[in-house]
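Protein Entry — a single chain follows
Next Lines — sequence and tokenised fold
***
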Amino acid sequence: MRYKKLVKTICGAGLVLSFGIFGQYMVSTSTTMGTETELAGMSYVLDQYCTLQTGASQTDPEAIVAFSDTPANSNGGMTTTVSGTAVTGDAPQVTALPTATATPKPKSEYANVGISIAADYVNIRKKPSTDAEIIGKLYRGSAATIIKNAGDWVYIKSGSVSGYIMKDYLAIGYSAEKLIDDFGTKWATVTTETLKVREEKNTNCTVLTLIPEDESYEVVREESEWVKIRVDGDTTGYVSKDYVKISVQFKKAVSIEQEREEARRKAAAAAAAEQAAREEQQRKAAQSNSQSNSQSNSSGHKSSSNHQNSSGGHKSSSKKGNSDKSSNGGGGKSGSSDSGSSNGSGGSAGSSGGSSNGGGGSTLGSGDGSSIASYGLKFVGNPYVYGGTSLTHGTDCSGFTQSVFRKFGISLPRTSREQSRVGKKIKVSSARAGDLIFYASGGRVNHVALCIGGGRVVHASNPRTGITTSSMYYRTPYCARRILG
């Protein structure tokens, strides 16, 4: 009996010990599994986060992936997500992952604008193929409106040209915006009836001139309340930003036909300028020969008179001398008239002519003002060069009018201020083709333009626009002079 009790006791203790060991093992295993499950969940979440970040960067490097901030749990653990289910208990709190969203970048104002970044120009083709017909050119810095996309090509419209251009040659959207200062020209369009152009950025300074509504002027500098504009030539001043509308303009595409026409125009203008130069040389040569012949005749007449006096024909010579004096008196008057006629056809104004008009100058010639205006219009588009007189290679305002009138044998002084004293003063409102219109700054003439009729002028305006046409009232005229009688 005692032996059986001992065996039962031993067996019971072993069984208890076995259950204890097995239970400890189960607790340990459960703890380990729970820990491993937590770590596996963390690994999964990190993988998901990295995948989201990598995917975002691959689709759009500028995309911003937004994640909401959540507070840590009471145990100090990280907030994680496992299959989108929130888990609570002894493990760190787990919450649902918010949907990753990319914050879109605001659409550029130039999203549908393409600016040529070609070294010189990019061809515009009739179809989206390099084998298609070339119908125009978009020169570097020129802009086009993008109508639609066609793979690697875009269909554009610029100026009078519509066709296809390869995307690689265009800066579009935000890339285009970066090129505004390089290739765009800002213009200020007047939105009030009459606007004062001031010398400085305040209302207490000198008013340089007045400019009318709807006229546009190049912006030299834009500031918070004032805009510095170029009126013409070297005339610049400030206008209030409240009374102008600022816009940006780019050069446009040119068609093949336009390019050919421009080449023909330039060739014709160059030929006209060369012809005018030859005629001027011929006129000077003829004038020089005339002066030489006149001096030679005068010398021969004096020699003949001396010979007659020495031969003893005193009475006869005296009578002849009186006759010559009378003839010379009439001839002198006639000569004066001839000189005036010469001035009318190409000579410089004389002082007597200036006093005869009482208008501060003399009428230099007679002719067709429309022909003079038409000749000046041939050079529209050619460059402005300060101090220049070339109608093809560059001229300033007074060089332009001087060179145009020279073609018709009429000499004008070199500067606009001197030209404003020539001819007959007339009312600006009565100006017609061939008249000169003058503009002043601070009461001093500093610009001249040629009236072409219809209230418009042609002039060498400024370095940006070159020789161009404008309203006669693009700024307040100072005076007008009629050069043709």
User: Anything to note?
Assistant: The first strand starts at residue 113 and ends at 116. The chain has nine helices and 23 strands. Residues 25-94, 307-362 have pLDDT under 50 and may be disordered. The radius of gyration is 45 Å.
